[in-house]
Structures are given as C-alpha cells and as structure tokens.
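Table 4 source record.
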Amino acid sequence: MLQVNLQEAAGNLSVLIQKAMNGEEVVIADEKSRMVKLVPLQEIKPKRRLGLAKGRIKMAPDFDEPLEEFKEYM
C-alpha cells in the first residue's frame, strides 16, 4: 500500500492514478488520518433489455420439419 500526503498527491496525481489503475492500493492522507483511497472504477455493463429484436427475426414455417439429409437416421 502506497500512502502519500495531500501535498504529494496534488503534485503527482496522474502518477498515483496510473499506479491505482495497475492494481496498487493508493491512499491519500492528511496529517491526522487517512482521507481517501484511489481505486479504479469497474466497467459498467449496460443493462440487458428484452425484446430489442422483436419483429426482426423470422422463423421459416418448416423450421421443425426433419431435414432431407437426415431422414434415413429417423
């Protein structure tokens, strides 16, 4: 864990952010106690929505019919 004071953090913020992005724990503290911890944000995945392709996909009427090539196996 890397702990720096507020003045150091102000001067080296881009370096500290890069260290946090690389997985190192970076804590910024004042004279009395710890203030903040830099951590990378997790990627936010969009919420899935049902029905987006409704009406775009069509199934042939004979979809469930056996294929000619496999009739001998049936």
